Amino acid sequence: MNTLQSQFSPKTAIQLVRSLINYGERHGLSRIDMRTVCSLSEDQLNDCRLLIDVQRYEALLGFISHRLGDVSLGFHHGQHFDAGRWGVLGFIAVTAQNFQAAIEAQYRFQSLSGNMGAPLQFCEGGVTTLQWVPAYNCSHHFAEQIVTGLVSLAREVTNNLKYAPNAVYFTHAAQADVSNYMEYFQCPVFFNAKFNGLDVNNELLEVPLRKSDTETHKILISHAQSLLEEQTFTSPLEVIKDYIVKTLPSHVPDIEEVSSYLQLSVRSTQRKLQEYGTSYSQVLDAIRKELALTYLRQTQNSVLYVSERLGFSEQSAFQRAFKRWTGITPKRYRNTILLK
Predict the structure, then answer these.
(1) What global pTM score does this model have?
(2) Looking at CB atoms within 10 Å, which of 147, 215, 291, 314 has the fewest?
(3) CA-CA distance, 142 to 57, in Å (whole number)?
């Protein structure tokens, strides 16, 4: 793995790891064994600013799933609401005015909880689609954990156990009885879909939250902004990647736009990237490549769909770029994956 690739290795917040270990412990697993699997000390589990390689978290998911004999671990863990699971973002969500405000804060400060994926929101008519786009080839556990967590969050903060989306979607094949999912979500659930996410009526996003606290929310937003500024200074590539991933489906951000998001001048952004031995064009190219590989592993996504999600003006332009990255066409790459 080269330097740039290692910088872009997906990471997740330690709070999510700690939440999963606590879940495993409640179900009778050894805390020491679980910490050993992901190579973490107890002190590291309590370091609220620590981000770890997401593959260590995936290893933990696999270990707990195997030990508990639970093929739906992510789905089950996601049902247990815990604001602290997402660090400051969780508490921002709880104190927001409504669920829409919570989602907007999640979008703004996503990089604080890692760069394993990005939340996207699309509105058509009276329905909003909330998607989670993974930045790597994640397990079904992780995808189910994220989407289920959105619903458990909504039910907790509105104090409405009947809070239900219109439909839920997962890109992977069903690993267990679909009726269990439909019973929990109280709506149709589709597997082998084009995205991970859910559809909700717009009015549900505007329901006042039961623990809404304007003053506390402002303080938490200010704290998150200071953390983001610190992260911009110490780990600018993490912040840049997060912004590019969540922007590409609508347009390709240029360096001026990214610099404005970072609250830096273009020259300052360029200097920071030079410190990592790279440039903005190289960063953008590397992110598009990794996302292309991720999307194409989800074999239900057409090449045209992938091309559009990555901001290419034409499918042919994407095909040329992909061949430059890998030496083969997108179709051949997908066929290779299917044969494994």
Answers:
(1) 0.83
(2) 215
(3) 9
